[in-house]
């Protein structure tokens, strides 16, 4: 069971990291915009996840450690008027709550996707959440 979970996590990391890396390279082509700074940061995130996934598929102990960090990077979902952050590679199952009255809970999921959001601004209604798939993957990597 452990090998199956590790391979599944590795495959999602490699696929999500590769597609994210390609999308960020496409965003970097018009050099000079302020969007290029965020794209470079995002590119490093995706390359790290891709390398972690490859190392995990090779059954490397360092790959388990890197994949744990890659899953922790995908864990928080923050969308406030001041700061926004969200990151996922391969798939996500997000549970979030809006921070206005009445508080509303939401669930969103997708397989075969990648996404990155890093912004100094955000939506008018703040939302905080967690990527359940990243949390479960991180816990599975702790099984060793």
UniProtKB/TrEMBL annotation:
<keyword id="KW-0472">Membrane</keyword>
<keyword id="KW-1133">Transmembrane helix</keyword>
<protein>
    <submittedName>
        <fullName>Xanthine/uracil/vitamin C permease (AzgA family)</fullName>
    </submittedName>
</protein>
<keyword id="KW-0812">Transmembrane</keyword>
<feature type="transmembrane region" description="Helical">
    <location>
        <begin position="37"/>
        <end position="57"/>
    </location>
</feature>
<feature type="transmembrane region" description="Helical">
    <location>
        <begin position="116"/>
        <end position="141"/>
    </location>
</feature>
<feature type="transmembrane region" description="Helical">
    <location>
        <begin position="77"/>
        <end position="96"/>
    </location>
</feature>
<feature type="transmembrane region" description="Helical">
    <location>
        <begin position="5"/>
        <end position="25"/>
    </location>
</feature>
């Amino acid at each position: 069971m452990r090998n199956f979970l590790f391979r599944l996590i590795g495959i999602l990391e490699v696929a999500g990291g590769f597609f994210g890396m390609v999308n960020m390279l496409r965003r970097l082509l018009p050099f000079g915009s302020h969007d290029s700074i965020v794209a470079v940061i995002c590119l490093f995130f995706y390359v790290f996840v891709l390398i972690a996934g490859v190392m995990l598929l090779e059954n490397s102990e360092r790959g388990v450690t890197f994949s744990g960090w890659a899953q922790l990077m995908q864990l928080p979902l923050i969308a406030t008027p001041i700061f926004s952050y969200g990151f996922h590679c391969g798939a996500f199952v997000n549970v979030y709550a809006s921070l206005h009255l009445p508080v509303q809970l939401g669930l969103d999921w997708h397989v075969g996707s990648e996404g990155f959001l890093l912004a100094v601004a955000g939506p008018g209604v703040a939302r905080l959440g967690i990527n359940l798939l990243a949390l479960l993957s991180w816990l599975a990597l702790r099984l060793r």
